[in-house]
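Record format v2
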Amino acid sequence: MNGEKYITSACIISNQVVYKNEKPVFKNKDTGVADFLVSAYHHFEIKYPKFYKMDNLSKLGWLAAELLLKDSFQPGKYKAEDVGIVLANANSSLDTDIKYYETAKDIASPALFVYTLPNIVIGEIAIRHHFKGENAFFILEAFDAGFIEQYVSNLLNNNILQSCICGWVELLDDTYKTVLFLVEKQDTGNARLFTKENINKIYQSENG
Amino acid sequence: MSDLKKQIIAQLNLQDVKPEDIGDDQPLFVHGLGLDSIDALELIVLLQQQYKIKLSNAEEGPKVFSSVRTMAEYITAHQAKNA
Amino acid sequence: MSQPVFVAGIGTISAIGKNVAESLDALENGRAGMASMRYFDSLHRDRLPVAEVKLSNDDLSKLAGLPATKSRTALLSMVAAREALNDAGIENIASLRTGFISANSVGGMDKTEKFFAEFLADNRKGRLRDVVHHECGAVTELVADKLCIKEYITTISTACSSSANAIFFGARLIKNNILDVVVAGGTDALTKFTLNGFNTLMILDEQFCQPFDENRRGLNLGEGAGYVVLVSEKVAATLKKKPSVRLSGYCNANDAYHQTASSPDGTGSFLAMSGALKKAGLQPADINYINLHGTGTQNNDIAEGTAIKRLFGPSYPKMSSTKAFTGHTLGASGGIEAVFSVLALKHGIIFPNLRLQTPMKELPFVPEIEFIKNATVNHVLSNSFGFGGNCSSLIFSKV
């Protein structure tokens, strides 16, 4: 029942660089976070106009998921209810909360209010890829590889999910980092084992 | 109407859309531009911020926001009232 | 691995009562909690009814045993969590592995708003101490500390399904033998942030809400907290008051349709409810009562109703939305409604769906409009559907 689980793809976006499986695939050092995310969206030639409506946190998480799955995930491989999303961060939706609050001084913006919940990032990813499986958003003090490994392994071991997109999506002002993992039950070739050590290794890889 | 198109694009974050792309009579919702319920609410905000017109009855929405032309007509009619 | 999880204690505070006994009395006597704003201050004071907890911050702080400078969200959480723990009466709790899984959507926002207003006017003013507990997780830590729960503390923030998710996460921790006892549920206080936000989404009712009514106009915002104390079979066996209810099923799914609206055919709701039944090993016909998410918005009620039609038709259990009593308490709703579900099982009662005048045309069933006593209630399904398509269903069953 408790078979091996594998990280079959990983995507990191941090410090104006996008990494796929720890290799840098896009860099744009001269811009603020909002412009950086849009420039990455253009660079990868993604066509999803709703991207522009998202707040920065959702743009970050959505983009990372998009690149995580690009060429690494076969749509149709799993049933919609068998793929889930488990994310965490420390600052929840505070970046957008503040921006929304600015608008509330005059006329509150409904489009911004929509994003004053961290799990909307999950919603955007689910809408894009039609993932209907279990999904959760945790608020943790810091990135916790052990927590993610334990929580997601439980879901896959008990067949609540067959595959899971999980990781950390954090953004506040100009400080941001997202590290997403695609976890599956089969080794697709270059996969790494889904262990606390490997999760941490990947999380720290962009510092090297 | 061309000013209104620019404002709509800005308010709704339609970055890839140019004012020339929006037909005067093109349906804004469902088909056409494919706007959704949150966009409708943002258009209500636009009316208030740019034109000081309050649309407090959400049911009027579908008629008023049917196309750029219907929006423009509504604005003209209500600005005259407010003046 | 699949050991049962029991409910050893319950605690709640909302617009209809500051504890379980008061709430039960209000439910039995049809006393809803919405009214014009009294403690909460807003521009919309004369227009929007809300379901406030009928206590000022000062009185609430006395009840909670926490300073009034702490966020109202934390005060509410403290009151309900402590009631639940006292109800459970676990004498040797200090020697057990105990966790606190709490949910909220707004954190310490009430204090932040006050700080912000002062700060905006003059950036030397405003007490920075007020915003220390702004962050959702900080509210949880504050209460856990006061309750002396140290082993495992975490916060879930998934909008209106948050506390339901907290509850079944707690159950998983027990089933996997990581913890012996979990206090799980959620809390949220009324804030201008939320009120203004929901107002711009135009889903608030200017009258008292009418869930599942053909002419429903929207929701009334509420506030409160609700917690259950979950225990393992081993701990249950040691308790003086033997638990009579267990958490038998649960499921979470994503609607994958829109950030704030539900899909017209209620896909997410359908998946959550059917998944919970499967987990519990039950058939739709086994459910005696559904505590509906039933917010009173045009969108939710038809989506949820359609999902119920698909799953249960042609024969339907009794059902009602208790949000007609408590308003929509957002992050606390799953927790408060879990407490109500447990009460339904313990006392064999069904709560009425207040102010239902015209049944919805599209649905072949009608929620209960009278309070029912001496009902057969063995299995209760409780729905909590949140923004972001996050849909959760819990099933509680008689032991």
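The CA atoms of residues 352 and 371 of chain C lie 5 Å apart.
Chain C has two domains: 5-238, 248-398.
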